[in-house]
Amino acid sequence: MSKRLRWGILSTAWINVALVPAIQRSERSDLVAVASRNLEKAQIYAQENNIPDAYGSYESLLDDAQVDVIYNPLPHSLHCEWTVRAAQSGKHVLCEKPIVISLSELRAIETAARDNNVSIVEAYAYMHHPQLHQIIELIESNDLGDLYHFTGWDTFPLPESDSNYRYDLAMGGGSLWDIGVYPVSLAIVLNKAEPPTDLWATQIHGETGVDLAFFGQMRFASGLVAHISSSFRCPERRGARIVGSKGTLNVTDHLTGQEVPGQPPDEGTIILTTTNGTENTIIIPAVDAYQMEVEAMEACILDEIATDVPLSLSRDILRTVIALHQSASSGEWVHL
Predict the structure, then answer these.
(1) How many Å apart are CA 321 and CA 328, to the nearest integer?
(2) CB-CB contact of 147 with 248 (8 Å)
(3) Percentage of residues of the chain with pLDDT beyond 90
(4) What is the pLDDT of residues 155-182, one digit of tens each?
(5) Which of 28, 84, 144, 163 has the fewest other C-beta atoms within 10 Å?
(6) Torsion angle of C-alpha atoms 38, 168, 189, 139, degrees rounded to 10
(7) In the chain, at which residue ranges do the beta strands (DSSP E only) sit?
(8) pLDDT tens across 23-44, in order?
(9) CA Rg, the chain, in Å?
């Protein structure tokens, strides 16, 4: 492989508005191809975004020997098939979250990564942002003391549409899979990447069977209790609160750096309030989390530096989300 990564994108999905400029700005990456199931659509998209090659099928893109790494932003239910096929074509893959929606699919991806000696990474851009690193540093330096409680929320109003896969149960729709995975994954990461032991959840269903709103509680062996919520029926809001024996950390937006894909990122703000009432506001520089995600893939593939989002972490997030769904369906606690 050369000292640069040559990227290809599967589909002209809306989320590409975040990754296209991120790849094109990164010093060691080149965006060389895009594929759509419609060649004319791919060609128009390529011309509008200064992408050299356009393909009228996903297979054609995977056959391109000049492509090193694939970005897979397809609907959730298609992630496994095309990530595995990309790996079998010798391509590394950055796959949008959730990487898959079943454990059997994850096993297929783990096998494909191992057998084809490629890196497959789930796209949690916020995990590469300095805001998360700052939060972890505060926890590890004992500024918060022993962690007791985590609350995380992610909601936005999603217009009803028959064509939006987020309303299709078979395609992995619902608020938990789409945005609830953010507070779920954050709780696990802040608990030293250890998943919860016991979970309980409830949900509000829509007419198509997907959850329009989801509420979950997770208990960890460390003593931490986490509450998460997600919704397609509430005003847009994101954030987190972390409570420890020495203080409380309020995170204005846990997705700082990726709030509005395609728009310049804002500064992040986290506020540490100690038990004696001292308040310290920490400003996080405005950084594009998507570009940091691309640069992390460069480091992983070109420099062989371990990713912050290994498949082992993806497995624990997946197991947790599946257990939350099980609890919401049964009304019972689930032991993980």
Answers:
(1) 11
(2) no
(3) 94
(4) 999 998 888 999 999 999 999 999 999 9
(5) 163
(6) 110
(7) 5-10, 29-35, 53-55, 69-72, 92-96, 120-123, 147-155, 198-205, 211-219, 225-231, 237-244, 247-251, 268-274, 279-284, 334-335
(8) 999 999 999 999 999 999 999 9
(9) 20
Backbone torsions φ then ψ of 148, nearest 5 degrees = -115, -40
Q: Around 56, how many Cα atoms within 13 Å sit in the side-chain half-sphere? A: 3
Q: Where are the alpha helices (DSSP H) in 74-166?
A: 79-88, 103-116, 130-140
Burial class, 179, CB count within 10 angstroms (exposed 0-12 / middle 13-18 / buried 19+): buried
**The tokens of 305 are what?**
């530096």
pTM: 0.96
Phi/psi for 218 (5° steps) reads: -130, 135
pLDDT more than 70, % of the chain: 98
Sheet of strand 5-10: strand arrangement:
53-55, 29-35, 5-10, 69-72, 92-96, 120-123
Tokens of 161: 């549409």
